[in-house]
Amino acid sequence: MLTKRIIPCLDVKDGKTVKGTNFVNLRDAGDPVELAARYSDEGADELVFLDISASHEGRKTLLEMVVRVAEAVQIPFTVGGGISTVYDVKRVLDAGADKVSLNTAIVQNPEFLERAAEHVGSQSIVAAIDVKRTNGGWTVWVKGGRENTGRDALKWAEETTQRGAGELLVTSMDRDGTQSGYDVDLLRELSTQVSVPVIASGGAGKLEHFIEALTNGKADAVLAASLFHFQQIKIAELKSFLRQQHIPIR
Amino acid sequence: MIGIIDYGAGNIRSVSNALKRLGIGHTVSSSIGELQRADKLILPGVGEARMAMDSLDRAGLIRWLKDVRVPFLGICLGMQLLFEKSDERHTDCLGILPGKIVQFDSRSLPHIKVPHMGWNQVRRRNDSPLFAGIAESEHFYFVHSYYAPAVPETVGATEYGLTFSSAVQMNNFYGVQFHPEKSGSAGLQLLKNFGERC
Asked: Can you spell out the DSSP letters for A94-126?
């Protein structure tokens, strides 16, 4: 049986993880490679790296990081943040990433999504969608949640799959950082509508939140960042809890 | 020395990284001359069947591949190419194994997502050296939208709305639908088995 995936997310800037962690026994808590290896050992099913570097140098450092992560871990990982050309996509995948996540660039230029999928295949393309609730629905926000596109999130999600996205990474901006739980209504609407896997993001704060996203929310995978980095919940603990609740887990 | 066949498909670096980690000598090449010197071959593959067959054709590798006598491992698309045909853009494949690659149909299988993406188990059908020392309960990482039906050459089967071939074996030809290079320690063990037992 296909298992549900647990995915720690690491924000990186200039090749370093940004949000602090309180992992002990790490030589360098800011080293994404060491952190990745640690998560892999603890049973993470997949990893996501979001690059928030603004500079050209930062992006070069990112590619070096991807090479080192690919050498250090034998689990799949996705890289996102600022990827806006097919050339960028190919460079990140050639460096050893399994998937790229695309966000603002595909909202601004949806044909880019199609071209990227044609070149590298849908299986390597994740559409990242940041959403906020509005009256009776959800709209898509871009540029790290600073700009409202006014687009309906469910329609945009459907369009990204038509254009070649092989997976959706859906972040509730309302819930992100609140630890008050995933937006389960959003996840359920999306997951029942699209035919590709959906990764839930934004709001995880306790064990029950993961259950809700995976059962009522029908999500295929759950993502969290600080919660794992600060070891409020350990991956092994989460997995054994989910197993007890009869969720299929690796 | 294992020869990794480079035909422009993705994930070659991941396969190479895994072999490096295992300390297994390997070379990455698209030249027949160089690949003929390898005593085992791996055909990796991420992407699309037609493009992959076209690239193998352009590299002049197709006829040679069909007659390879050394142990050969096809990974993911590399396994699918061992079959006769693929429904993916109606592609003629290598025809080493009988049968046709078909698409997961989310209309006839309404409760499944396509691609089949994530960690799933492999039920053993026959003894294969590939799985030596790997428990049945282990999971492997899959990502694919097309699949090989169960055939007599199936040595491992996986459930996803239906039962498909996740590992095949015929003579010196082996294939796995999952990505051993991305499947943690179980995947590494499988690659080690290919290096040492096949």
From this structure: HTT-SEEEE-HHHHH-HHHHHHHHHHH-GGGEE
CA distances from B89 to A21, A119, B58 (A): 47, 15, 18
Beta bridge partners of B163: B159
pLDDT per residue as tens digits for the range A68-77: 999 999 999 9
The residue of chain B with its CA nearest to that of A166 is B115
Terminal Cα-to-Cα distance of chain B (whole angstroms): 13
Let me know if residue A250 belongs to a domain. Answer: no
Tell how far CA A173 is from the center of its chain: 13
Instruction: Find out whether A146 and A173 touch, Cβ atoms under 8 Å.
Output: no
The tally of domains found in chain A comes to 1
Hey, is the C-beta of A247 within 8 angstroms of any chain B C-beta?
no
The CA–CA distances, whole Å, from B165 to B16, B117, B138, B147 equal 25, 15, 16, 7
Whether B93 maps to a domain, the answer reads no
Taking the whole predicted model, whether its pTM rises above 0.80 is answered as yes
Question: Could you tell me the CATH number of the domain that includes residue B174?
Answer: 3.40.50.880
The interface predicted TM-score (ipTM) is 0.94
Q: Does A167 touch chain B (CB under 8 A)?
A: yes
Cβ <8 Å between A74 and B188: yes
